[in-house]
Amino acid sequence: MSLFSSSSFAALALAGLSLAAPAGAETLQQGGTLRIASLNSDLDAFDPLTGYSTDSWAVLRAVTRQLVTYKGSPTDLKDDTTLVPDLATSWDVSPDGKTYTFHLRKGVTYSGPTDREIKAGDFVYAIKRFCDPNKQVAAINYFNLAFSGFKDYCEAFQKVAPGDLTTAKAFIDSHEISGVHAPDDYTLVLTSDSKNYDFLNILSMNFVSPLPEEIATKYFPDSVEFRQNFPSSGPYFVEKYAQGQTLVLKRSPRYSAELDPVRAAYADEIVIDFTTNNEDTIVQKIATGEADLSLYLEVPPRATIARYLKDKNPNLHASNAGSANFITFNARPEAKSVGAEALRDIRVRQALTYAVNRANIVQTQGGPISAEPLTQIITSTILGYEPFDPYPTKDYQGDPEKAKALLAEAGFPNGITFDAPYRSTAQFEAIALTVKEDAQKAGININLIPIPPTQWYAYIQDPTSRWDISLGSQFAPDWQGPSTRMLLGGWLNSDASPCGTGNVHSICYSNPELNKLAAEAFVSDNPGPIWTKADQLVSTDLAWIPLIEKRKIVLGSDRLANWTWSSLAVAADITNIALKP
């Protein structure tokens, strides 16, 4: 039985609004320390090259800038979709839509280990660094298609043996990417082989942040030493980083509101504590004001959500986010287990989707304020979404008998067993246990394998790891609105994302019809209907099994003012939230 009133949840969900008071009613001032308590024992990444979680992006927002970005929204994540100039003041586009010429803002400097001015060549170096064999960029599929010559450059770079910074630097210094160059210090020219409707959106991601070559080449990507000597292009710099303990960011003395029209940088400093690794403790600290926000807390405890709703507490902030949880499959050629081989049969995948009770999963996440059932790959806040359910069941409760019949038809009349890793957090454990319990009713036994969150990606990307299905897979849009490329044109598009290590979830899905539709969408002036068709194709084929679309719920302390959502981080914008006097 639910702990909550479904009617009150539904009303809030439909409103898509925070319970907080409008930001305009608040008096804002600069100063104070913004305190953040982390559920993880450290950052999963603090390098724009490798940072690809919403939590790492929330922190990178404070120390990086891009050519273009989003201002943030006081109302809802899906409202933060307007691109604005950031380090670029303006840009020109060629008539064929393939070449962008950016004109950079003058006078903006780094902070931290260097205070020199940011130049166009720093973007060129950062992009050339994407293919470093010591650590490849986390979303290479975007850039294989975005920059002319990038794929060939990367293939050559991968022949350089990892483990030696000198050889990596020598390759970067002696090789060029034909579609990336800086004719002078304040002009950056980027060229694609084809027109891309979302080219500027791709450039808004933290990956495309400038880095000074003379600093970054001294350290292995995202090493402790790199983090401690991070060359910040944003309003804050790293004053202190102690692995597993704390990260202290201080506003740069060179920060200029005139040169950064997007990030107000109200707080004097931002302190992240990595020693509070318990959900209840984090919630208690926020309630008492010891902490102002959390990091890596996907969903607050159900009892906490219920209490905040009952009390109409304005410090509960909820927004539609377009994020989702999925069951994904180990489709690597190396996967030869009975379970992995069976899942190559569409009937087995259909049996698994019928075995899932999505209504139960929604309740484990806190009810409709936190999640809603999902039956398709793309989600409600991104381009091409049209509600679609290829395998409907009554009230999303599943159909165990239909699942059993499909298994028998596929040659498994006595059921089947799957090995299933999941991230060992309360949110993912709740999903895993619910899926396991419901699947048993359909004759599917699931052997759960808990994996610490900091080891998750390494585990599923290792071809020797034991798993058939993943219960720890999730998605958040890289940007709200026209971000469908990430899923249908990226992760599931085998032309853009090769099978195996380096692909976010080691996805090895290949569908020539999908790839063809993606190619059509990239160059289209109206890609929405094409993505709708592609979504229906892969959702029917069960490339993944969608479980729930999540709403983002964030708890804040009484000290916070000017609440602002950041769509890239799918979280609070720590550069625009202020502290009350």
Automatic annotation (TrEMBL):
- Whether tRNA processing counts among this entry's keywords is no
Q: Boundaries of each Solute-binding protein family domain copy?
A: 82-486
- Matches recorded under CDD domains: PBP2_clavulanate_OppA2
Gene3D superfamilies found in the cross-reference section: Dipeptide-binding Protein, Domain 3, Periplasmic binding protein-like II
The family database entries (InterPro entries) matched by this protein are listed as:
Peptide/Ni-bd, SBP_5, SBP_5_dom
Q: Which UniProt keywords apply?
A: Plasmid, Signal, Transport
Q: Name one GO molecular function term.
A: peptide transmembrane transporter activity
Specify whether Nucleotide-binding is a keyword of the entry. no
Q: Where located?
A: Periplasm
- GO biological process annotations for this chain's record? peptide transport
Q: Name one GO cellular component term.
A: ATP-binding cassette (ABC) transporter complex
Question: Membrane-spanning residues where?
Answer: none
**What span is annotated as the signal peptide, if there is one?**
1-20
Principal location class: periplasm
The record's family statement is: Belongs to the bacterial solute-binding protein 5 family.
Cite the PANTHER family for this sequence: PERIPLASMIC BINDING COMPONENT OF ABC TRANSPORTER, PERIPLASMIC OLIGOPEPTIDE-BINDING PROTEIN-RELATED
Designated name of the protein: ABC-type dipeptide transport system, extracellular solute-binding protein
Classification from the root reads: Bacteria, Pseudomonadati, Pseudomonadota, Alphaproteobacteria, Rhodobacterales
